[in-house]
Design a protein that fits this description.
- It contains 13 helices and no strands.
- The protein has 312 residues and is mainly alpha-helical.
- It has one domain.
- Helix 6 packs across helix 8 (167-190).
- The chain crosses the membrane at residues 45-70, 82-104, 110-131, 140-159, 165-187, 199-222, 228-247, 259-278, 284-302.
- Keywords: Cell membrane, Membrane, Transmembrane, Transmembrane helix.
Amino acid sequence: MQKEHFLKKTVIVCLLAMICCVLWGSAFPGIKIGYKLWNIDIKDMASQIVFAGVRFFLAGVLTIIIGSVLQRNILFPRKENVKAILCLAAFQTVIQYLFFYIGLAHTTGVKASILTACNVFFAILIAGVFLHQEKLNKRILIGCLLGFLGVICINMQSGSVELHFIWNGDGFILLAALSYAISSVMIKQYGKTQNTVLLSGYQFMAGGIVLLVTGIVLGGQIQNGQNGAIAIILYLSFVSAIAYSLWGVLLKYNPISKVTVFGFFNPIAGVILSALLLQEKQDMGLGTLIALILVSCGIYLVNRDSDKKKKK
């Protein structure tokens, strides 16, 4: 009972949520560093898929281990979990990361970190327009508009109003964000009756296997890695396992709105870490700053609205 009260404290929620955001933000430059250390060419999509498969299979194993330790019980899927695991694996891991990994190889970590934030707006639109889980209002629409303007802004050439959109880079990142949004709506629904940590762990493993096999069939491989190659793939697996586990614990003890409001920091972490680790400082101009502000404000407005509804 004490642990539950401890995890409900705002300062603790803030600290753990920010840790999740920093971990997720570090994945953007981490993936590109991984490509370099494993000698994966920008055009070698098959090997990128193999890389993704290995990462997420390991992430699934770590998630199940962490969940089993925290719950003091080994997590095994039951018959009623199979459908949810397969559906989540399809959208959360396979479809999302096929587009994400390929897209990231053709755009910058800075742009990818901001474009990925669109999954928040996609999820809200899906839940409100198609599933009628919540009513769209003025504040939510303004938040979505700000996010959309941010996406436009980040794709503008410096000093020009001409849009520069790379279909297999920026476009694929947006499709990945849409897939993730669909999976978010799914896990919210499945989480009403099933263990979300169990679902996350096994969907990572199932999705990882699909990606791995797909990549190998297409001729992909990862070998002859440089110093630090194994460490980076283990780190990326660690990022997914720890971040999703922490996020799941926070959602268990707190209202969804209280936790997700901190998600606005994701693009900030991604931009800062990409600039520092990938030397993408040329993308850190005024346009990027404006886009970052717009997207962050949009995410904040949407979640602030949800928070108000919870208080009523």
